[in-house]
Amino acid sequence: MLDILIDVLALRGTTMIVESPCDWLILRLLQDVGVRILELPWTAEGGLDRDSLERLLRDEPVRLVLLSSAVSLPAGVCMSAHERLELARLLERYGCWLLENDTFGDLSFEATHAALRELVNPERLVVFSSFEKILGQEAPYGYLLCRRMSGELQRQFLLRSFRLSSIRQRAIARLYQSGRVDQHLHALRDQLSEQAARMDQRLAQHLEGQVTYRMPAAGATFWLRSTHAVDMRQAFQRLLARQVVVAPGELFSASGLHHQNLRLSHTFHGQPNLDVALAALSEALRQAETG
Q1: Which positions of the chain have pLDDT values less than 70?
Q2: Shortest CA distance to 77 belongs to which of 130, 53, 52, 41?
Q3: What dihedral angle (degrees, nearest 10) is formed by the CA atoms of 26, 260, 197, 284?
Q4: DSSP 126-180
Q5: In the chain, how long is the greatest CA-to-CA distance?
């Protein structure tokens, strides 16, 4: 979907504001086509720096802003209703497009997390998402929502139509029509929320004093920050040798931010495996301390 948008919106060589941390696949794709990425980090309190955003919109030739629809992952945070309204006003004032990443929009634990698209000008809005996070690898399809440029978007979709299985597309349509997707989402959200609560307890047991974090509001991961200076790459290699996989925080930045952070999944299968993994993480962080 992003590949299509890059062509349709002529984004090669342009300037974008991107929330940070951001999905590393998105960052790499934008970098590969020469997009100049201006990162807007989430604050420690779980909000966006409004003053920094306004300064960038005022002083830089920004084509569009890339933000998550409801909850930002891997940070697992969401803006308040007031922050969302202020953001919408800023985008309108500077005539800037919003590129809304709705990939995890249906995985919010709380139904109160409204999408940004409900507040911004729909004439300068593009929404992209995927079925894969909801339905799994059997539905590896994405989609775009946009009021404008329908002719060019249609042309790009037709050029890629040979890649799509019509049988799978019809199967997905039937799932949505029958209401089974809504039932699945309800159960999935409850499961993820329960797993996050259990992970919170285990983190307190195994990593108390070593990491800080905010409880995630959606999805299947925790965004941890080391309380001590740590060589996170060294910790990652130690964990990999023990078959424990975490993602170093710097993967989610285009400019080396978040090097003291890591992303950890809370979907481990079975309590013994989780305890072993967290004990290994605690040991790896201690051994990788640099000061």
Answers
A1: 112-113, 161-164, 269-272
A2: 41
A3: 120
A4: EEEEESHHHH-TT---EEEEESS-HHHHHHHHHHTGGGS-HHHHHHHHHHHHHTH
A5: 57
Specify the length of the chain in residues.
291
CA atoms within 13 A on the CB side of 48: 31
Distance between CA atoms of residues 134 and 105, nearest Å: 10
Model pTM? 0.91
pLDDT of residue 271: 57
Reference 98, options 73, 72, 67; nearest CA is 67
C-alpha 75/C-alpha 221 separation (Å) is 8
Q: Which of 276, 275, 237, 232 is nearest to 256 (CA)?
A: 232
Peptide bond connecting 248 to the previous residue in cis, omega within 30 degrees of 0: no
At 103, which amino acid appears? T
Which H/E stretch holds residue 56? helix 50-59
Q: Which amino acid is at 1?
A: M
